[in-house]
Amino acid sequence: AQKITQTQPGMFVQEKEAVTLDCTYDTSDPSYGLFWYKQPSSGEMIFLIYQGSYDQQNATEGRYSLNFQKARKSANLVISASQLGDSAMYFCAMREGNYNQGGKLIFGQGTELSVKP
Amino acid sequence: DAGVIQSPRHEVTEMGQEVTLRCKPISGHDYLFWYRQTMMRGLELLIYFNNNVPIDDSGMPEDRFSAKMPNASFSTLKIQPSEPRDSAVYFCASRPFRGPGMNTEAFFGQGTRLTVV
Fold it and tell me: For B82-93, what is each residue's pLDDT tens digit?
């Protein structure tokens, strides 16, 4: 069974508009972490934002915010004021267990975002 | 810090040959991960180490794959013999252990693009 599901293989957004990338996860562990990474066409993996399962507030990092709905097991990434440089693959990932128990990172299949000028 | 360093960046080899991929994690990081990325299977965790000790190698596809971490600053992923289906981008990542309540994301290298012909 998929632990991380990203249902949008591809998304388009107009420059300067906001866009939401969906991510749902599946775990029975009460302690987990959720991550979003960006992979531009150059191939590197860039960390964007993190949300812990016990965090009371949604995480924000500049133009990135994470819409964390624990009961629904969703962790959607919101990018505000899209820029052309935001065009890339975006991966949602989950780390189960206490951070100090190894915590391997499991990735979703990714969403390819294209920002239109 | 220079980040996670992988070598080579590109490797083309003939089927049946041995291939060795190399990784230098960020100094002071406690965990090291090897991932493989393909279009079909996405990002798969192959193996990870904690303080140079292999913790989980359940993602290693076959006995043809082996990974070592002889010291805190170096790891190798070896494929012997290589097959065309091993063609992929192989990423190495590392992350530190900081302590209770501290998130630590994984930092990725630039990847090695392996082509087996």
Answer: 999 999 999 999
